Each structure stands twice: as C-alpha cells, then as structure tokens.
Amino acid sequence: MRRFRILLFSLFALPLLPGCQPGDADGWLSGYETPDPLVLRTPERPIPMPQADLESADGAVSTDELFEERWTLFYVGYSYCPDVCPTELGQLSRILPSLQERLPGLDWQVVFLSVDPERDTPAHLAKYTAFYSEEFVPVTGSREAIDAVTSAVKAGYRIEPHEEGEIGYNVDHDTSFRLIGPNGRMLALLPGPHDTGAIVDVLEDFMAEVDE
Question: Which of 39, 64, 119, 146 has the fewest CB within 10 Å, making it most exposed?
Fold first, then answer.
C-alpha cells in the first residue's frame, strides 16, 4: 500500500506575528509573541470562519452554531486514515481534559471535520470519534461546505483518484490543530508533530495574554 503522506501547506502559509500594529482592531493578537513557534503560530490577524452548513449525527449544524461561545481545537482528517488521524485524535483525547483542568473557566471542545463524506457518514463519524472521546464533535458535509471551511483556514487535502464505490483510497491531508475562538475566528495554528504537554503549556500562556 502506498505510504500515507501529509500536507503541510498551512504551516508555511501562516507567518509569525510582526508585532503590534497601531490602528489594527485585532492588535491584541498582533502583540502576542509565542514562547515556542514550533508549537504554536499565529496569523497576522484572526481569520473568520466562513458560514457553512455541515452535518453531525444530530443533524445539520452551521459553523456559526458549531463554534459559538466555545474554545475549539479544530482538526481535519478522515476516519479511514491508517495512522496519522488515530495518532492525532489520541493526542487530542489527552489535550482536551488537560485544558479543561488547567483552564476551568473556559468552555473547550474538539471538532473533527472529515473531508471524506463519501465514506464518513455522520453516524459513522460519531461511533469512530467516541472511541477516542465521547466529547469530540465530529462533522462532515458537502464538498462545497468542506472546501469553504478548509480553504479559509488553509487546511489542504487531496483525495486519491478512485472509482465510484471504491473504499480503499487514501486522503492526504494537513495535520495541524487550529485554535478557534468563541467568536468563530481562527486565532492560532498548532503544527505537527504534536506534544501534548507542550501544547497545553503554550495554550495556557496564550490564554493569559489574549482576550477574544
């Protein structure tokens, strides 16, 4: 079987912060200097999540509803991923309770977006992510909705050409986690490889410095 490959477009597409920018409405973000750019990187200003209608096991959910009033670690992948997604979801299953313990005043969630709706039905995704954590929020959607969301946050993916009905194809995809604030804006990128302790430490530092 072809070795699984990952896409790292977003790692290089989001520059480190240049410093405070007078007159910038989002200057609070521009003034943040990450203690470890290999663990967390920030865009020059927050990136709004587009309005899109996705599908969960409980029915349709808009991105406005999905990210409203919660801090989100957002991950893009697919359930048939042979190795990378299981590893990253395992990391997220340890990061989520650590954040809930160390930052108890904030409402945290993990959202897993499958870019493979051909195989990943909402019901299947719910069963798949429950293996890692019943708190995870799995979603998928139409190709148009998926592309709107992934394009906004620069989460590249590529589906291997395959015949209709074939189930053995692979999907190459970005492996970064993305921090979405309670106002539905992407505030930071956490590139792989991921270290659970380092991520929790840097997010605690981030939350002490910024205010969404």
Answer: 64
Report helix, strand or coil for 100: helix
Residue range 25-74, pLDDT digits in tens: 455 566 677 888 899 999 888 999 999 999 999 999 999 999 999 999 99
State which amino acid sits at residue 198.
A
From the number of C-beta atoms within 10 Å of its C-beta (0-12, 13-18, 19+), residue 208 rates as exposed
Q: Contact 179/72 with Cβ under 8 angstroms?
A: yes
| pLDDT tens profile 94-142 | 999 999 999 999 999 999 999 999 999 999 999 999 999 999 999 999 9
Buried b (16+ CB within 10 A) or exposed e, 175-198: bbbbbbbeebbbbbbbbbebbeee
Q: Distance (Å, rounded) from C-alpha 201 to C-alpha 204?
A: 5
Alpha-carbon distance of 176 to 207, in angstroms, equals: 19
